[in-house]
Request: fold
Amino acid sequence: QVQLVESGGGLVQAGGSLRLSCAAPGRTFSRYTMAWFRQAPGEEREFVAAISWTGTSTYYTDSVKGRFTISRDNAKRTVYLQMNSLKPEDTAVYYCAAGPLGVGVIRESDYDYWGQGTQVTVSS
Reply:
């Protein structure tokens, strides 16, 4: 089964920026809602952001509003997460997900395809 592939994680100082990418192979992904989740050590996986298949609708969790921007390029079959003003609290493994429902869906079980994650570490 074809899965998603994340890249762009790394180590950055607080206040810095990173841009994550998620490759979404397969024709079906072009009309799926794409989302980012994250999981810090010892914590539950949480929803971060989602974008509709057209790229016209987005939804963010409160903690990242104004700092993170989700976007997609359907021609490249890729979704991005631009992360600015990073904080140590943003440190986590970030996962890309794809699902058939709308951008307001934040439950893991409503997404059908997942990547294996990319580590983001923000130092103080």
